[in-house]
Specification:
Blueprint (H helix, E strand, L loop, with lengths): L6 E8 L4 H15 L7 H21 L5 E9 L2 E8 L19 H12 L2 E7 L2 E9 L4
Antiparallel strand pairs: 1-2, 2-3, 3-5, 4-5
C-alpha cells in the first residue's frame, strides 16, 4: 500500500499472541530496508513500543477485533507507527505501584516517546481506534 509518503507499509495480523513477534520481525525488516541500522536505538525502541501496543490490542480488543492492522510510515522526518483495532476502548496508562504485575506497558511506551521527543495520538474511528506513536526519523 502506498500513501504518497516517503516510505509506507501496512499489514494485518490476527489478534493473537503470535502476532507480537511477527510484527516485530516485519517492522525490523522494513526499518532495515529503509536504511535504519539494526543497532540503532530507534529500532529497539520501536520494536518494544510495537510489542506493547500489539499485546494491549490482543489482550483487550481481541474479543471484538479479530484482526489488528499495523501501519508504519516515514514522512517529513517523522516515523509513524499505528496499531488499529475495532474495540472502542481507549487505553490509559495506569499509575504504577510496586505490586502491579501488569499495566506497565503504556508507561514504558510513554517514557520512550517522551525521551525521543515524539508524540502519542489516539485516532477514533466509528469501528474502533488507531493508536499512533510518532517518533523522529534520523535517516536522511
Amino acid at each position: 500500500m502506498t500513501l504518497g509518503y516517503d516510505r509506507s507499509c501496512w499489514f494485518t495480523l490476527p489478534a493473537e499472541p503470535a502476532a507480537v513477534p511477527q510484527a516485530r520481525r516485519a517492522l525490523a525488516d522494513h526499518l532495515a530496508y529503509w536504511g535504519l541500522p539494526q543497532s540503532h536505538d530507534l529500532g529497539y525502541g520501536l520494536r518494544l513500543i510495537a510489542s506493547e501496543l500489539i499485546t494491549n490490542a490482543v489482550e483487550h480488543a481481541a474479543v471484538v477485533s479479530p484482526e489488528i492492522v499495523v501501519t508504519l510510515t516515514v514522512h517529513d522526518g517523522w516515523l509513524w507507527l499505528g496499531v488499529r483495532d475495532r474495540h472502542p476502548y481507549r487505553p490509559v496508562a495506569l499509575l504504577e505501584t510496586v505490586d502491579d504485575t501488569s499495566g506497565r506497558g503504556l508507561l514504558i511506551v510513554r517514557q520512550i516517546v517522551d525521551e525521543t521527543g515524539g508524540q502519542i495520538h489516539i485516532e477514533a474511528h466509528p469501528d474502533g481506534k488507531t493508536l499512533w506513536v510518532i517518533l523522529p526519523w534520523p535517516v536522511a
